[in-house]
Amino acid sequence: xxxxxTITSLLGFLAIILGAFGSHALKxxxxxxxxxxxxxxxxxxxxxxxxLLFVNTYEGFTKNQKNRISLFxxxxxxxxxxxxxxxxxxxxxxxxxxxxTPLGGVSFVVGWFLMMLIFLKKLRESKS
Length: 128
Hints:
By secondary structure, the protein is mainly α. It has one domain (2-127). 84% of the residues lie in helices and 0% in strands. The protein has helices at 2-24, 32-57, 63-89, 94-97, 100-127. Helix 3 runs antiparallel to helix 5. The two termini are 31 Å apart. 27% of the residues are buried.
């Protein structure tokens, strides 16, 4: 649990740093469209960091459920947000890693779907 919470805290820390960096250091270096893309990556990273805090402290999930949901959200942050950071902060073009961003989006969707299924199961169990 503490390993995932440590990684989650690092992701939150990095989201704040990258958000500030994007707002100040990149303001005059990137187009408005690129800044918006970068900010989307930061926002999705922070949203999922907050959800990871919930997932890994919620006592209603088993260890296995926490691990599976966390894996998909960690992958989503790495692939979705990470690919956008790489595109805007390096010489690597979107054409060369275009497939990573949607894979990250799919990872987010799978994580949310798993969480929904777990809660639906708990709902059914509570009614019986």
